[in-house]
Amino acid sequence: MSTPGAGGARVEVLGLSAAFGRTRVLEDVRLAVEPGGWTAVIGPNGSGKSTLLRSVLGFHPHEGMVRVDGVPTTGMPRRERARQLAYAPQRPVVPEGVSTADYVALGRTPHRSLLAAPRPGDHRVVAEVMGRLELTGLADRLVTTLSGGEQQRAVLARALAQQPRVLLLDEPTAALDLGHAQQVLDLVDRLRRQDGLTVLSTLHDLSLAGQYADRLALLSAGRVVAEGRPADVLTADALASHYGARAEVVAGPHGPAVLPLRAPDGDRG
Amino acid sequence: MTATADGTRSPAAPPAARTRHRAALVLWAAGVALVLAMLAGVWVGALPLPPGAVVATLADRALAPLGVDVGGGLEGTGAAVLLQLRLPRVVLAALVGAGLAVAGAAYQGVFRNPLADPYLLGAAAGAGLGATLVIAYAPGTSLGPVGVVPLAAFAGALLGVGSALALGTAAGGSHGPTLLLAGVAVASFLAAAQTLVQQQNTDDLREVYGWLLGQLGRAQWSDVLLVLPYLGVACVVLLLCGRALDVLAVGDDEARSLGVHPGRMRLLVIVAASLATASAVAVSGLIGFVGLVVPHIARRLVGGSNARVLPAALLTGGAFLVVADLVARVVLAPAELPIGVVTAFVGAPFFAGLLWLGARRR
């Protein structure tokens, strides 16, 4: 159970700002993720979580700097960047007529010329990743015919086949029920502990974020308004002021969980 | 759900390897089919040529530069029919079929649209306008050995695709519906212009119409030489882009995360596919169906990966058009059917059967 690679990298986001047209969506975001750490970006809808991830990857034009182990990603050749950072989007495009094995093998793209055929080493990495994610039996199935949880595993497998040092996951549990969401997050946690991978994810489910990530960054209106250990970031006050939510924060065995509260009787029509 | 049943299976050979072996087998079979189709194409005709003598003649001509003499070949009229009429025609049919099919597969891959075909971005309408203009206003002219109609059609096709690309990228980039809509706009405009010219020159209607339906009847070696460089380069580029198209199929953001520049890659594929289409159209007119359906046939044979679909479409398209041309020559002999009629008449039922079989298998 070993994937060769240099282990996780330190990711620093320095003064990152981004806009859609004239609308500013991120304002001077500062963030650091230690090697092997897992930071979950949380925040209300439209706070800029996905744009932050896409900016870190260099897909969205932005000001400021992103450094991976001290090396700025701007100016890094695109294939080199793809060997450092792997990405699983919120709604992955599932290609028609492609088998799961072929889909996972796409993760090897940054490791060889686009013109070259896969080498034995590529097949070995793909087979190993598929084994770890229990996809071997689904190798011949079309990705389009997999269930939601299986598809999410296939997307993760493709990202891992890149042998990256940082995994960027945009809402990895968005399409999954609670059980499958836990399976995927357990898997990510295991992978990062075994390989020392650094994980930067967005998560809209605050209880899951509190249980799994070791640090949370609360994004509100494009700014990081709180950053730190889950118990320090997830507070009833923060939920009230940034989400406009009534909720109680309960201490769980692995971190805080959020219990939403109904409005007091008098407020209900 | 069959996931648990599948999940416990432990396959003897890695499944991915099995898929690759199957694809390699299909490619070999398609290559053999292409060679057999081309041989049949030169054997059959108004003057039947004995297969043995045909092979001997071809071997003799091929080995002549090496000083090897193969006996038993054709002489006189037979040799002339083979070398000056049938062979250029069969070679041209193979080139055009291969070019249209691989271009169609590339368009379908790059637009992620199963209904895309090589004529999507105005290549057909542009070529039609070019050919009609020349037939109407400069009939019978030629530049050296090459008739001016293919040149005008080639220029028209490039003009059509070029305008669509310029309009599409100016209006919003090389992806999604914008470029397709730009193609529709350019194609309608050019088709309207073509109709206008045609209506003002009704004397040439028959010739224009014949060109629009597609024809290989006047194929000469000069036609082969005219298109070979463009078609060859375009096909090589497209075959090399297969893996990149597979990466583009997972979406722009994911392609970027895998180190591929989606916009540039798409432009390269579109330009190469359009060049292949323009070359094919220039010498054969508008042969429909090949570029739309052959890629689907190839996909059913080798799976969805473009790295395998493109070479399979190339070989299958070549074989398909050679056979279609053979049918066009023999069914009403000595008269000839327009080859575009044959491709649709033979191809449509064949494809319908394939769809039906595929639906039953699921």
From TrEMBL, chain A:
<keyword id="KW-0067">ATP-binding</keyword>
<dbReference type="InterPro" id="IPR027417">
    <property type="entry name" value="P-loop_NTPase"/>
</dbReference>
<dbReference type="GO" id="GO:0016887">
    <property type="term" value="F:ATP hydrolysis activity"/>
</dbReference>
<dbReference type="Pfam" id="PF00005">
    <property type="entry name" value="ABC_tran"/>
</dbReference>
<keyword id="KW-0813">Transport</keyword>
<keyword id="KW-0547">Nucleotide-binding</keyword>
<dbReference type="InterPro" id="IPR017871">
    <property type="entry name" value="ABC_transporter-like_CS"/>
</dbReference>
<feature type="domain" description="ABC transporter">
    <location>
        <begin position="11"/>
        <end position="246"/>
    </location>
</feature>
<dbReference type="InterPro" id="IPR003439">
    <property type="entry name" value="ABC_transporter-like_ATP-bd"/>
</dbReference>
<protein>
    <submittedName>
        <fullName>Iron complex transport system ATP-binding protein</fullName>
    </submittedName>
</protein>
<dbReference type="InterPro" id="IPR003593">
    <property type="entry name" value="AAA+_ATPase"/>
</dbReference>
<dbReference type="GO" id="GO:0005524">
    <property type="term" value="F:ATP binding"/>
</dbReference>
Automatic annotation (TrEMBL), chain B:
<keyword id="KW-0472">Membrane</keyword>
<feature type="transmembrane region" description="Helical">
    <location>
        <begin position="337"/>
        <end position="357"/>
    </location>
</feature>
<feature type="transmembrane region" description="Helical">
    <location>
        <begin position="66"/>
        <end position="83"/>
    </location>
</feature>
<comment type="similarity">
    <text>Belongs to the binding-protein-dependent transport system permease family. FecCD subfamily.</text>
</comment>
<keyword id="KW-0812">Transmembrane</keyword>
<dbReference type="InterPro" id="IPR037294">
    <property type="entry name" value="ABC_BtuC-like"/>
</dbReference>
<keyword id="KW-1003">Cell membrane</keyword>
<feature type="transmembrane region" description="Helical">
    <location>
        <begin position="119"/>
        <end position="139"/>
    </location>
</feature>
<keyword id="KW-0813">Transport</keyword>
<feature type="transmembrane region" description="Helical">
    <location>
        <begin position="224"/>
        <end position="245"/>
    </location>
</feature>
<feature type="transmembrane region" description="Helical">
    <location>
        <begin position="90"/>
        <end position="107"/>
    </location>
</feature>
<feature type="transmembrane region" description="Helical">
    <location>
        <begin position="265"/>
        <end position="297"/>
    </location>
</feature>
<dbReference type="GO" id="GO:0022857">
    <property type="term" value="F:transmembrane transporter activity"/>
</dbReference>
<feature type="transmembrane region" description="Helical">
    <location>
        <begin position="179"/>
        <end position="197"/>
    </location>
</feature>
<protein>
    <submittedName>
        <fullName>Iron complex transport system permease protein</fullName>
    </submittedName>
</protein>
<feature type="transmembrane region" description="Helical">
    <location>
        <begin position="309"/>
        <end position="331"/>
    </location>
</feature>
<feature type="transmembrane region" description="Helical">
    <location>
        <begin position="25"/>
        <end position="46"/>
    </location>
</feature>
<dbReference type="GO" id="GO:0005886">
    <property type="term" value="C:plasma membrane"/>
</dbReference>
<dbReference type="Pfam" id="PF01032">
    <property type="entry name" value="FecCD"/>
</dbReference>
<feature type="transmembrane region" description="Helical">
    <location>
        <begin position="146"/>
        <end position="167"/>
    </location>
</feature>
<keyword id="KW-1133">Transmembrane helix</keyword>
<dbReference type="InterPro" id="IPR000522">
    <property type="entry name" value="ABC_transptr_permease_BtuC"/>
</dbReference>
